[in-house]
TrEMBL record:
Entry keywords, A to Z: 4Fe-4S, Iron, Iron-sulfur, Metal-binding, Oxidoreductase
Cited Pfam families: LYTB
Enzyme Commission (EC) number: 1.17.1.2
Gene3D superfamilies linked to this entry: 4-hydroxy-3-methylbut-2-enyl diphosphate reductase, catalytic domain
GO biological process: dimethylallyl diphosphate biosynthetic process; isopentenyl diphosphate biosynthetic process, methylerythritol 4-phosphate pathway
Gene Ontology molecular functions: 4 iron, 4 sulfur cluster binding; 4-hydroxy-3-methylbut-2-enyl diphosphate reductase activity; metal ion binding
Enzyme class (EC, first level): oxidoreductase
Record protein name field: 4-hydroxy-3-methylbut-2-enyl diphosphate reductase
Cofactor(s) the record lists: [4Fe-4S] cluster
InterPro entries given in the database record: LytB/IspH
Keyword Iron-sulfur: yes
Amino acid sequence: MIEEGWLTPESVVGVTAGASAPEALVQDVVTALQARGADEVTPLNGEPENITFSLPKGLRIPAANL
C-alpha cells in the first residue's frame, strides 16, 4: 500500500524489484503512482536476468510418475 503522506508534488520515486517479483506487481505499483499524479515514468535497463527457481522437493513429482 502506498501511503498518501509519503508523496509530495516534488517527490521522485524509484521502484526496484528482485528476480522473484512478478512483473504484474511492479506494473501495479507504477500504475498506483501514476494514479496519484506521477507524470513521468523512465524505465532503466538493468542487468538482464535469466534466473529460474526450482520447486521445493516436497512439491516435485518424480519423473517415473509422469
